[in-house]
Write a structure and sequence with these properties.
Residues 16-199 form the NADP-dependent oxidoreductase domain. This is Aldo/keto reductase. InterPro entries: AKR, AKR2_Oxidoreductase, NAD(P)_OxRdtase_dom_sf, NADP_OxRdtase_dom. This protein has 15 helices and ten strands. By secondary structure, it is an alpha/beta fold. The chain folds into two domains: 3-246, NADP-dependent oxidoreductase domain (TIM Barrel), CATH 3.20.20; 271-334, no CATH class. The strands form two sheets. Strands 3-4-5-6-7-8-9-10 form an eight-stranded parallel barrel. It has a two-stranded antiparallel sheet with strand order 1-2. A hairpin with a 6-residue loop joins strand 1 (3-5) and strand 2. Helix 9 (201-210) packs across helix 11 (239-252). The termini are far apart.
């Protein structure tokens, strides 16, 4: 296992981290076996959140007795002081621990949210108070708009940042990582498979690890998946492969969607899923979860071209901060189904 110094924290984290968001979907004994196996293999970064159903409780029940062996990160999506303080205290109880190594203020995509978080009665104040009490060691920020995250972290208020970095979403490499480096922040990448869509899996995992990050969190729910992830990252990534992966990511990211979720569709089409998978789908095909998505939503996708309110002006596109041709991509994709 490769370990990297996690920015200003000084902690050596495993290059492969454990994302616990999907654990509530499997039996408790399977979750217990998977978490303990991951720790046995040297994975020492565990990521969860208050919003991930009972993920925190699973971690507390399964590995709290091994607390000294892992760096524990959780999240609050509350924006106000009282709500955040209450949620963080509840997380500590669920995780069966006196402290978390990292508390991340979660899923911040709008300037108004950030303003509220950093206000006198905002979530950041709650995090700072609990840090002073020893219940939080470090404070981080997460979101889906790398260029906005770069702006928000550039005052030195945060110790870590969590962001998308994958073959079809490579944008943080240019938009965010340089800003994080200026402040010696911990850099955590997420969603290498973009929610279970992207293949080939080995390249999907090796690309973010080949970039200037500290740890990659991958959602694993079985011993088999832990082994698959470890095997994919076993070989050293040489400079030539790093360049090849970077070029592939540039090609696969040509759709330009950041999954910021500003857009919405009256037909309830999941626009980011279509946009992000559009290029990689045509080149490599998709994992079973991705193919199932298209099968499930085929009728919605093919209805786009005939939806009268969007014929003159698509309702989704004015909401996109990146001015992306979403209607065209959806209709082109629908024509291949």
């Amino acid at each position: 296992m490769e370990y990297r110094v996690f920015g200003k924290t000084g902690y050596k984290v495993s290059a492969l981290g454990f994302g616990a968001m999907n654990l509530p979907g499997v039996p408790l004994e399977q979750a217990r076996e998977t978490l303990n196996y991951a720790l046995d293999q040297g994975i020492n970064y565990i990521d969860t959140a208050a919003a991930y159903k009972n993920s925190e409780e699973i971690i507390g029940a399964c590995i709290s007795h091994r607390r000294s062996e892992y760096f524990l990160a959780t999240k609050t999506a509350k924006r106000d002081y009282e709500g955040a303080k209450e949620e963080i205290e509840r997380s500590l109880s669920r995780l069966q621990t006196d402290y978390v190594d990292l508390l991340q203020i979660h899923y911040v995509n709008y300037p108004a949210e950030m303003k509220e978080i950093m206000s006198e009665d905002g979530a950041y104040r709650a995090a700072m108070e609990l840090k002073a009490q020893g219940k939080i060691r470090y404070i981080g920020l997460t979101g889906h708009r790398p260029e906005m995250l770069a702006k928000w972290i550039d005052k030195g208020d945060f110790d870590q940042v969590l962001f998308h970095l994958s073959l079809p979403q490579p944008f943080a490499a240019d938009d965010l990582i340089p800003s994080a480096n200026r402040w010696n922040m911990g850099k955590t990448a997420m969603k290498p498979l973009s929610g279970g869509f992207v293949q080939p899996v080995d390249k999907a995992l090796r690309y973010p690890v080949s970039q200037d990050i500290h740890t990659l969190i991958s959602g694993m729910v079985s011993v088999q998946e832990v082994d698959e992830n470890l095997r994919a990252l076993e070989a050293v990534i040489e400079p030539q492969e790093q360049q090849e992966l970077a070029q592939l990511a540039a090609d696969m990211g040509s759709h330009d969607c950041r999954r910021c979720n500003y857009c919405s569709c009256p037909l309830e089409i999941s626009i980011p899923d279509v946009m992000i998978s559009s290029v990689i789908r045509s080149k490599f095909g998709l994992l079973p979860k991705g193919e199932a998505f298209y099968e499930k939503h085929k009728e919605k996708l093919t209805s786009c071209a005939d939806y009268d309110p969007c014929k003159e002006q698509p309702l989704c596109e004015p909401k996109c901060p990146y001015q992306l041709p979403m209607q065209r991509v959806i209709q082109e994709t629908a024509s291949t189904l």
